[in-house]
């Protein structure tokens, strides 16, 4: 059921070959770096947040096709979203690729991100797919440290 179908494979290859939003964001107010030693993937995520909305999100980095395509599709999916929506999408994506259960009823619709559903069959690839997302989370969390003690 969650095979990497031809369409999904092509979408991942396309985003690996022509990554969207792969550039440094000069006016970013939050950035973080991520590294996946298992595969050698490196990513830096740049975010500009205004009024709790992700105005702009870009990335730089090098890595395998899954990590690059994941970062590319992530930036496409999150631009214009509120921080609450980003959290929901992050949790949904994490559940999609690494969740315990296969039930998708609770998951929000993830659109193109559903292409990564096949990754759950390859545990070694889960970190490639989630690297950019964890890095984004770290970037978003940074600012909160000064506001929240959590
Ligand atoms: Zn990788």
Sequence-ordered SSE layout with sheet pairings:
Layout: H1 6-17, E1 30-36, E2 41-50, E3 53-62, H2 65-78, H3 83-98, H4 123-144
Antiparallel strand pairs: 1-2, 2-3
Helix pairs in contact: 1-2, 2-4, 3-4
The protein binds zinc ion.
Run of helices and strands: HEEEHHH
CATH topology: Sufe protein. Chain: A
Shape descriptor reads globular
Spatial order of strands in the largest sheet? 1-2-3
Provide a descriptive summary of the structure in words.
With 150 residues, the chain is α+β, with helices and mostly antiparallel strands. The chain has one domain (2-148): Sufe protein. Chain: A. It is built from four helices and three strands. The protein has helices at 6-17, 65-78, 83-98, 123-144, and strands at 30-36, 41-50, 53-62. Strands 1-2-3 form a three-stranded antiparallel β-sheet, covered by helices on one side. A hairpin with a 2-residue loop joins strand 2 and strand 3 (53-62). Helix 1 (6-17) packs across helix 2 and helix 3 (83-98) runs antiparallel to helix 4 (123-144). The longest helix is centred in the last third of the chain and has 22 residues, at 123-144. The protein binds zinc ion (ZN). The site of zinc ion has 8 residues, from helix 2. Zinc ion (ZN) binds at residues 36, 39, 41, 63-64, 66-67, 128.
TL;DR of this structure?
By secondary structure, the protein is α+β, with helices and mostly antiparallel strands. The chain is 43% helix and 18% strand.
Keywords:
18% strand; 43% helix; alpha+beta; Sufe protein. Chain: A; binds zinc ion
